[in-house]
Amino acid sequence: MTESGKHTTREPLVRIVKRGLPSTGRSIAVRAGSLLAALLICGIYILVVGKGEVTIGNALSQMWNGTFGIPGNARSMRIMLWDTAIYSAKLLCISVALAPAFKMKFWNIGAEGQIIMGGLMTAILMHDFGSGMPKPLLIFLMVIVCIVSGAIWGVIPAVFKAYWGTNETLFTLMMNYVAMKIMDYFYNMWKGKLSALPTFPEQTWLPPLFDRSYGWNIVIFVALAVIMYFYLKKTKQGYEIAVVGDSANTARYAGINVRKVIIRTMAISGAICGLCGGLTVAGQNHNIAYSAEAVHTVTSGYGFTAIIVAWLANFNTLGMILIAVLIQFLEKGTGQLGNSFPAFAVGAGNVMIGIVLFCIIGGAFFMNYKLVFRKKAHPKHKSETEVRASDA
Amino acid sequence: MEQKKQVAIEMRGVTKAFGSLVANKDVDLCVYRGEILALLGENGSGKTTLMNMLSGIYYPDAGEIFVDGKSVSIRSPKDAFECGIGMIHQHFKLVDIFSAVENVALAMDSQEKYNLKAVAAKMQQICDRYGFELDIQQKVYDMTVSQKQTLEIIKVLYRGADFLILDEPTAVLTPQEADKLFQVIRNMREDGKSVIIITHKLHEVLDISDRVTILRKGQYIGTVDTKDATEDSLTEMMVGQKVELNIDRPEPVDPEPRLILKNVTCKNAEGIIVLDDVSFTVNSGEILGIAGISGCGQKELLEAIAGLQGVEAGGSILYYSPQNRKTTELVGKSPRKIRDLGVALSFVPEDRLGMGLVGSMGMTENMMLRYYNDNKTIFAEMKKPRKLALKIKEELDVATPGIDTPVRALSGGNVQKVLVGREIAASPTVLMTAYAVRGLDIHTSYTIYRLLNEQKQAGVAVIYVGEDLDVLLEISDRIMVLCGGRVNGIVDARTTTKSEVGLLMTNMRKEAQHD
Lengths: 392, 515
Prior knowledge:
Mean pLDDT of chain B: 84
Number of helices of chain B: 18
Low-confidence stretches of chain A: 1-8, 378-392
Distance between the termini of chain B: 47 Å
Structural class of chain A: mainly alpha
Largest sheet of chain A: 2 strands, antiparallel
Helix content of chain B: 25-40%
Helix content of chain A: over 70%
Number of domains of chain B: 3
CATH class of one domain in chain A: Mainly Alpha
Shape of chain A: globular
Mean pLDDT of chain A: 82
Largest sheet of chain B: 6 strands, mixed
Shape of chain B: elongated
Radius of gyration of chain A: 26 Å
Low-confidence stretches of chain B: 510-515
CATH class of the largest domain in chain B: Alpha Beta
Oligomer: heterodimer
Strand content of chain A: under 5%
Largest interface: A-B, 39 and 49 residues
Strand order of the largest sheet of chain A: 1-2
């Protein structure tokens, strides 16, 4: 009885209550509110870290210049725009690769590894067989090899998930490190005593388009986004992916072979990652490298960034185009900001990306829930309680 | 004797709703010190929800709870413990790789010193006092279900609970283990503890409890002294008086077998037999009602027919096609294979949004579940589903902003119209429905009854798994009663009585037990 004596009769201060389905109005309001909050916090961050010496307008124009070039300066604009284009396209491609897996609620965070395997196998072709082969055959082989190796890297965790219910998140993550070490092995072997691995011979590069060896990459990456959009929206397989993602039970009920869908979808996801790796090595980097410092690595670390893009775009591959450019703006823009203002030299990009993500993803909570605060105690209710207590 | 009857816990006017579903409405409950109270009701009558409010899992929307006469607010399981309330849930909450004593030590206060020896000694004391049999050093993963349950009870007692709530404790026990448990519970009563047992088994109620509180459909029906109660009187309170519903029941025309099940036995994922040697026939042009407390094999039965549940060797489910009288064995075939063989089977599963439909998709895409594969291109078939969606929306009067609104956003009745509409549109030979009117309003329920009767008159063999006995008695031609995974009788729905079916549901017939 002493135990119950500790007790108050108060309701909890805040309770979380589920809302009905989000209406269009509410979802727009929540998104707008989240973005506004993000901008506000970013603004405060710039003012505080810049110690008031950097105005928000100043910071924004620096970020613009760093992404799209200095307005009026043709050379700067050309360089910056192409650079932004290829990196956005690459980020887009990997996000597109994740879309079918994520739509199926298979959390493939192994894009890094799948890209590396595709890139590495292409590099082996370029390094060891490139000189003795007619170019069309070489390119054909490179494309096949990178797609297949990426697909294999994606299918391994899928098979384990489909048959033994393993956790795909951990599995795909660990596969990344295996792939990195395999690539390190080849890198060091090829490098030998040199300080760095020289680029592969030019005759093994992809043919240029728009005067750039990565021209085809941009075209293919963007085309993939469009194709994936229709694949997910219109085809039987795309439909099966959506059903499995929403409810495996419903899929079984409808006669869908859930295991087959999981494995097939991860083959596609891995294949696109592999293709991205292969094209990056053959068309853009002409080299392999994977280390934390190197900017021009096979993956650029986008295997992880793409997860964010895919989520922010709600797995809509056309929407990802916009998000990929936005991420580039934050990444490259803050790089420029750091160059101009030492206060933002390190990590400003990550901080701002973090703020935007936190607000947008955290804001989604209010789509489905609301908070109910404790109301003031009803006087009547209270008196009843007291009467009761004195009775006892 | 009378003065010993001191009120321990009292709930007054407690209400809890989940969205539009009212799980408990204005429920009163009272437990005295040193008594065993049975909380009786069918599945879905709100027993567990009510107890979860005592144990701090849920917070009531309205109403008051008193412990020892003081109004309390139980916001978390921790609060519940401070009030001396401990609940043993159906699903145990134990750390598998820990030993019994380590699991109990987890429940210690943060101020208490971590001393396994002391904990073990105190546990042993509890065991001796109430007659528990448990090896205190045994790892949980080595324990039987019964031992785990014992450990859960000891854990609660260790924390000093005076009021114990057991949620269907015998569901997982053999009869011998149940007897042992009951002895322990009686010992606890002698010691002045109050015990609430949630159950729907009448003989247990009569066997162990002092008083019974009955809930029906979330509402408080009444409390009686067990010594004044009989199985019949309790059944009546539990299932209610017969209500005239005036559902049409046309006579079956030329019934002939459509499905013949023989010796069908199914095991669930844990390897426990959930459907035990079931044999029966489903005829065209009739509605076969299936009654039973939920969890008695209804789900597995329908899923076995649909190809979603494996059947043990020796079982057979034969399908008789009405067109060419060809027979098809359904056991061992996948749902896709069954369809490809031309078996016209429709299935309205219990879990509408988790199995029958895709909640995040609109009506059109949900129609596609059946038809997306009906063309030879790589593109999903959309035209036919779209037309069907429009037709169902029109004919069944589905209230939805549009056929592309996610069906999750629709009310329960409209969700069911979408599902039933799709399944009937496939012109089935056999139509299986599980709890087709659960949670629906009267109007929609009657729409569903009408649709089922239309199917029956068109010569379809309809299986109607239901929980409302009044409806089952009025709509079915025959009623098969399942009890503990076995067929406990097939009765003529036109001549049987509610109490006959109710007793078949709760009591295994002697003959059935022995054959």
